[in-house]
């Protein structure tokens, strides 16, 4: 599908970059590879320990084997100083050429608000960290990219939200709040970036078996429930989302902004 969708349009992205925040697994990894197939050079921001670097090298090799450039930075995407350093690096080769920004950072505290054990509940520091990493960082990266002249006019911003923005799940409260904020930030960015013809949309995927999902308590139940309710009878995959993002990067979608786009096989419309 993606090759057919892009075909003649891939020339639109020659020399353009996609910046993926959270590029070493899940939606970020799949989107990095799909956009590379579609003509983009890839800048990947990720946070991995030594054990995970072999997989990062595999991803970069796949991108370069496609004839695209791959520039991966191992850092905490929510660290202001490290973000400034990364922006400086990008200025050397991507000035005005970042056409796609994907925020796919899944790192937050999974604890209840209330518990009989006071030590088991969310602390203020954990709540603040979750909101900062999973939501606020989208705004900070966008501000810095625009200020540095790195984000191309006519570009696309995508942020991964989830059904948890409107549904509850034990221990998901802080992440749910972050997803609500993330959707709100996309709406605000859509308004403020419209004069630059830059769109901003949240992507709501169906339940997807990713490393991030496996960290949520009760994930096995979530997976089985999703399989039973999804009209397609299967889970959403990272590749489903990646193909949609690659299509939405086309010029055809330059008037679609401020939305929460469901890529879920109809999962979230079924009771």
Envelope shape: globular
- pLDDT average, as an integer? 92
CATH topology: Rossmann fold
The largest β sheet comes out as: 7 strands, parallel
CATH architecture: 3-Layer(aba) Sandwich
Sequence of strands across the biggest β-sheet: 3-2-1-4-5-6-7
Number of helical segments?
8
Number of strands: 7
Q: What is the H/E string?
A: HEHEHEHEHEHEHHE
Question: What is the number of domains?
Answer: 1
Indicate the proportion of strand residues: 15-25%
Query: Taking Cα atoms only, what radius of gyration do you get, to the nearest Å?
Result: 18 Å
Unreliable sequence segments: none
Question: Can you offer a commentary on this structure?
Answer:
By secondary structure, this protein is α/β, with parallel strands linked by helices. The chain has a single domain (2-264), classed as NAD(P)-binding Rossmann-like Domain (Rossmann fold, 3-Layer(aba) Sandwich), CATH 3.40.50. It has eight helices and seven strands. It has helices at residues 2-6, 26-37, 53-65, 80-91, 124-147, 173-193, 219-229, 238-248; strands at residues 17-21, 41-46, 70-74, 98-103, 151-161, 199-205, 260-263. The chain has a seven-stranded parallel sheet with strand order 3-2-1-4-5-6-7, with helices on both faces. The chain is globular and about 55 Å long. The mean pLDDT is 92.
């Amino acid at each position: 599908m993606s090759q057919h969708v892009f075909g003649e349009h891939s020339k639109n992205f020659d020399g353009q970059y996609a910046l993926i925040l959270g590029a070493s697994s899940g939606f970020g990894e799949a989107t990095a590879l799909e956009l590379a197939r579609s003509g983009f050079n890839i800048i990947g921001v990720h946070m991995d320990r030594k054990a995970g670097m072999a997989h990062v090298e595999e991803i970069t090799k796949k991108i370069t084997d496609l004839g695209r450039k791959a520039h991966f930075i191992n850092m905490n995407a929510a660290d202001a100083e490290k973000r400034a350093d990364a922006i400086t690096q990008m200025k050397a080769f991507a000035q005005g050429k970042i056409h796609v920004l994907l925020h796919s950072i899944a790192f937050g505290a999974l604890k209840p608000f209330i518990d009989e054990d006071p030590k088991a509940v969310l602390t203020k520091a954990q709540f603040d960290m979750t909101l900062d990493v999973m939501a606020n960082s989208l705004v900070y990266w966008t501000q810095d990219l625009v200020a540095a002249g790195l984000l191309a006019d006519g570009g696309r911003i995508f942020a991964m939200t989830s059904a948890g923005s409107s549904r509850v799940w034990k221990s998901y409260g802080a992440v749910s709040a972050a997803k609500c904020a993330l959707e709100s930030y996309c709406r605000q960015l859509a308004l403020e970036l419209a004069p630059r013809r830059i769109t901003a949309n949240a992507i709501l995927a169906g339940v997807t078996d990713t490393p991030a999902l496996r960290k949520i308590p009760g994930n096995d139940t979530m997976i089985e429930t999703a399989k039973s309710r999804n009209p397609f009878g299967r889970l959403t995959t990272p590749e489903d989302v990646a193909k949609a993002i690659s299509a939405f990067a086309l010029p055809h979608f330059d008037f679609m902004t401020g939305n929460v786009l469901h890529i879920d096989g109809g999962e979230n419309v079924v009771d």
